[in-house]
Amino acid sequence: MRCCFSAHLPALAALSALPGPCEVLRSGARLAPALLRSASAAVQRVRSHHPDDLTAVNLELVTLAEDRAVVTWYTGIPGTNDGFGHPLPALTEGEVVYGTHPARLDRVAAEGVRTAHHQVELTDLEPGQTYYYQARSRGTTATPTPLHLVRGNAVGTSTFGFGTSGGPYSFTTPQPPPGRHLLSVALCNDLHLGETTAGLVGGLPLLRGVAQQPGRAPYPEIMSRALVEEARRRGADLLLAGGDISAGGAAHDLGEARRILDGFGTHGRDYFVVRGNHDRSRENSFQAAFPGSEDGPGGGDGTGYFARDLGGLRIIGLDTYAKSGNGADAGGLGPEQLSWFRARLKQAPDQPTLVFGHHPLTVRDSVFPVTRGQCLERRQARAMLDAYAQAPGVFLHHAGHTHRNKRTVLSRAPHVTQQEVAAAKDYPGGFTLLRIHSGGYALNHYKADAPAARQWNERSRRVAAGLWPHHALGRSVGDRNSMTEHDLSGITGRH
Q1: With CB atoms 3.0 to 4.6 Å apart as the test, which of 72, 255, 398, 426 could cross-link to 356 if both were Cys?
Q2: pLDDT by residue (tens digit) across 7-39?
Q3: Alpha-carbon distance 128 to 176, whole Å?
Q4: Could you tell me the sign of the dihedral formed by the alpha carbons of 15, 19, 21, 26, in that order?
Q5: Which long-range contacts (CB under 8 A, 24 or more apart) does 35-41 make?
Q6: What is the C-alpha to C-alpha distance for residues 461 and 58, in angstroms, rounded to an integer?
Q7: In whole angstroms, how far apart are CA 193 and each of 29, 56, 255, 324, 424?
Q8: In terms of DSSP bridges, do strands 107-110 and 95-99 run parallel, antiparallel, or are they unpaired?
Q9: pTM, to two decimals
């Protein structure tokens, strides 16, 4: 089984999944500025530099909550090349200076270690307040990942600071979700245990994949372990893994995924897993590694979908590739699962409900050409949206597969946030924390913080000829951080 962005496809399957001419032209128009920027940067790199010079690049405002923000960047040695057109790492301290006026950056958040992969957290922020900040390493200000060239913004919630060298840049903190905090859920997907090269897109020869450095542990294992550790550190009570747990459904890889996820807690109680198109195999190794929920249809008979009530929160897990195929075509639930899903929602339409499955219902605003294999089959997606329209308790649909952060609200069911979460296995490499309050919820994306995970995150950002951030990070802060009001008072709290 192969998904759209991560592996070779057989020739015929690849041809059947090719985007139309309009999609190719649309994608080219969006990416042209980024390509020009990359070419300009390449020219700059060939110039000579003083040995003590430092470059600070790839500044990103990854996480933005009502009381905190997480900023990341990279420091390298100008004029060097690691083989991917990227400067070799320069180990140095990092700090973020910030304040409520661009001329008075009077607060400092600093790292306590020397590193090339900087990750600084600003705490004790006030909700609804505008802040200005600069990230610095050895006096050099960090410049942002240039998402603004494709109608995006990597470093803030406004364009303040663009056109300068290093800002300061600006963000405004959101309001907290109304009511008291009930529980937190880590949403993740696309762990791809067993994968060895990231970014082999559709077998296209011009898109060079990125492999782990020799002597280092396999990157899917590094990223998955770091995800579990970070989710626990961030206070997650539950973890939901939305498919493509393995690279090809091999028993060994799924077994390793089970051992890693067991570090979070007990399967079927503390964490839940659904199957992606990569996880299917003739031996049904996925079912052996992750037996079905005992209250699901058939009581663990391998159907791959389930519903569970956890202290008033209904979780519905879907198998969005319940079909034969190689993964290049659209996802599908099958008539039996779709009928079961509709019936479940009708039983208690007002119950607070979170749905998760591998394929999203729709793919909007992709910088890369969209193929039919990137989402659920259209008629089934419409049927699910119609079911959501009659179930006001549903508030979130979490999906993976596209390997990007993207928040979408559809007019057929505007009370349901459609949240695509970037792959755990590589850049930006992490998970989304769902914080549920009695009057609403917040979604905040976190990068995995372990040193080895930071290193692979930076290395793997060069997928798709270095254009991967324009797709994967989320072109706005709101694609990876949001707050929504919704009556969730029917949830009693931690299970």
Answers
A1: 398
A2: 333 333 343 455 656 555 556 555 555 555 555
A3: 9
A4: negative
A5: 35/467, 37/146, 37/149, 38/465, 38/466, 38/467
A6: 10
A7: 34, 32, 9, 21, 10
A8: antiparallel
A9: 0.90
| CA angle (153, 369, 151) in 5-degree steps | 20
Measured CA to CA, the distance from residue 95 to residue 289 in angstroms comes to 44
Task: Give dist(CA 59, CA 96) in Å, integer.
Answer: 11
Pairing of strands 197-198, 181-188: unpaired
DSSP secondary structure string for all residues of 340-374? HHHHHHHHSTTS-EEEE-SS-S---S-SSPP-GGG
> Residues with Cβ < 8 Å from 339, sequence gap 6 or more?
none
Distance separating alpha carbons of residues 121 and 220, to the nearest angstrom: 25
Nearest to 188 by CA among 144, 252, 236: 236
Q: What is the DSSP string of 166-190?
A: S--EEEEPPPPPSS-EEEEEEEE--
Rounded alpha-carbon distances, angstroms, from residue 318 to 160, 322, 355: 42, 9, 8
CB 278 within 8 A of CB 3: yes
pLDDT digits (tens, 9 = 90+) for 194-232: 999 998 765 455 567 899 999 999 999 999 999 999 999
- Residue 350 CA from chain centroid, whole number: 29
Could you identify the residue written with the tokens 């590694």? 289
376: left (phi over 0), alpha (psi -120 to 50) or beta: beta
Q: Are 212 and 456 in contact (CB under 8 A)?
A: yes
Query: Using CA atoms, how far apart are residues 431 and 448, in angstroms rounded to an integer?
Result: 8
Q: How many CB atoms lie within 10 A of CB 171?
A: 25
Tens-place pLDDT, residues 410-431: 999 999 999 999 999 999 999 9
Bridge partner list, 238: 185
Max intra-chain CA distance, the chain: 69
Tokens at residue 443, please? 């979604």
CB count, 10 Å around CB of 478?
Answer: 16
DSSP line for 403-446: -S-EEEE-TTSTTSEEEE---SSSTT-EEEEEEEETTEEEEEEE
Pair of tokens at residue 299:
């009581």
Reduced to 3 states (helix: H, G, I; strand: E, B; else coil), residue 210 is strand
DSSP 8-state assignment for residue 311: T
**DSSP letter at 493?**
S
What span, in angstroms and rounded, lies between the C-alpha atoms of 176 and 172?
A: 13
